[in-house]
Amino acid sequence: MDRRPRIGERVPILASRRGSPERNVLGHIELEELRKVVVRTATTHGPNGPQGPMTQFILAEAVRHLATQMGADVQPKGGREPVPRVLSALVGHERFVEEVLGISINQMRRRWPSASDWYADLLAYILRPSRHDANYERLEKALPGWLSLPLGEFARWLAGAQISQALDMNLYGLADTVRWLWPEHPVVRASLAASLSALNELWVPILHEVFEVYGLQARQGVEAEEIAWTLNALMSWESHQWSIDQRLVRYVDSSDGRSRSRTSRAAMVYLLGACEPVEGSSLTLLDLYARVPRRTRGADNAPT
Question: What is the pTM of this model?
């Protein structure tokens, strides 16, 4: 009896292409927990359900294809097109599996008999909160080294890394595009609260650790969630600018002479007003840049 693949496991996708009786490896997929995201498949379990490798492969390939097609299609339009019309042109319910994946249309029909269900689940998959998980894992590995640096350098490394990863079109760029194009779509609206919650779960613990390491605390009346929202908004906006031209948004910071993102500079200015030292003394902006850790995370792999 074959073992069921586990969540997080990378598995090959085997299927016969149209016109060929042989089963070939179409690609690979790292399985995710999608039962609360992909909810409109014809069945909720088994290979045709949301946890089926082929189901997730079709979704992932549709994201890659849609990201490529939407990124290439930049011709101005007079008005917004309805979601089904745009999606059907790029990742059509039946055409996508036949013409792009080259597999039987039954692979789609067994999972999403209705085109509207396919488009709704595809949008939910693009906007899924779990896409932030890989970013959290990268941060967990890098934070010990960054937290051994002066605060200004910590901000420089953290902001630069976050802006760079936000340029991933499959994970973040496409989701932002969908939100800009179709903000009133029910799936887009429903995803916003989940996305904000996921961001708080990521950033609030990191902020608490940063404050503890550098001996800082939020000023009276300032909440960690407010700081997290502000810093994420800065990084999100600058990532849009970076995607256009990085040369126009990077600059040399007058406080320390280092080349950095504008987000890291704005974050330091913001933190100067949002937090204070636990010892009660006042800080200038230069003091904040130079502030060294009051305790370490036990790492000696600081970047230079």
Answer: 0.70
